[in-house]
Amino acid sequence: MKLSKAVWALALTVFAWASAFPAIRVGLEGFGVAGLSLARLMVASVALAVAAPFLGVRIPRRQDLPMIVLCGLTGMSAYQVLLNWGEVNVPAGTASLLIAVAPVFSVLLAVAFLGERITRLKVVGSVVAIAGAAVIAVAGGHAEYTTSAWVVLAAAVVQGVYHFATKPLLVRYTGLEVACYAMWAGTFFLLPLLPQMVHGFAAASTAPLLSTVFLGLFPSAVGFVVWGYAVARLSMASSTAALYLVPPVALVVAYLWLDEVPSPLALVGGVLGIAGVALINRRPRRADGGEAAGKATGRHTTDRPRHVNGHANGHSADRPDHANGHANGHATDHSGHANGRDRMDASSCRGTGHPAERKGPSAGFE
């Protein structure tokens, strides 16, 4: 069976965001936490700035700048610093398992501040996912690992805040546009780390240097572009489900690249975390009466896509929410925020003041 270009784009996104976690471990050797945090965002920001005119990225409205600032501070600046800091002692694959729980926090924020309904599945899923994260945090058996694991979990929290903060923006902009705005804002707020970044580029050996450039170009810049292409052409269920593959792929890449083997207890915690996120994002079956009522009125009723993490996951960035749009990234809650269909160039809304037909999830990334 011949796979469509959108499916290949989705597969490329999963691999890009998964590979970010081991690349971070290599980049840290030459840049350190501070230098790597800015260097990755700087490379990604320049690449996206060059591509933005060809991708139809519009200038944001002035009244949306405060929310864009929040997205940049949380999903980019804080996320990069916390994740890089945590990966000093936490293996790459294990870090991807912790970032995968970011959707839990965006869901809890939506319930607290947006009045979204809390269901039994969301409650159970949140408890299971947080329990899984706690298991991972103690799996290393020593204090340095445990402390760093909680730092990575803090990165998942700020990634969840990012996915929550993107919701009002995704009413007016595409997921790619929101990611660009947040990337540029996050880079600006990390500019005080410029001396560390310059030192890293001047003194780092070949492997950390290439890994850092790879992080900025592939998981951060290319990852967002191909993710936007995929979600504009595939169903939200398919896009979201694919982001559950980011942690397993990250484990494989980390093993092949760095010879990392996570502990059995960390794997158990990771399974619990992913299972909890899956429960949160599970869509209850609609009653037959609801569909019949839609037909009676001459309209077809559909569920509003859930806000999910990638990112990441992204990213997160590397998640990304990372399917909340990473996902999983930022994969990660890296990873669907509005009904209809999204066009990456948003040509249907340019100059009209109306949003594009469908907003893809703001992906999470590592």
List the helices and strands and how they pair.
Layout: H1 5-55, H2 65-86, H3 92-99, H4 102-113, H5 120-137, H6 143-169, H7 175-189, H8 194-203, H9 206-231, H10 236-243, H11 246-258, H12 264-280, H13 288-296
Helix pairs in contact: 1-2, 1-3, 1-7, 1-8, 1-9, 1-11, 2-6, 2-7, 3-11, 4-5, 4-6, 5-12
Strand content: under 5%
Q: What distance separates the N and C termini?
A: 31 Å
Ranges where pLDDT stays below 50 over 5 or more residues in a row are 287-317, 319-360
Q: Report on the biggest sheet.
A: none
Shape: globular
In round numbers, the mean pLDDT is 81
Number of helices: 13
Please compute the radius of gyration using only Cα atoms. Answer: 19 Å
Structural class: mainly alpha
The tally of strands reads 0
Task: Provide the succession of SSEs.
Answer: HHHHHHHHHHHHH
**Helix percent band:** 55-70%
Give structural notes.
There is one protein chain. Helix content is 64%, strand content 0%. The protein is mostly helical and 366 residues long.
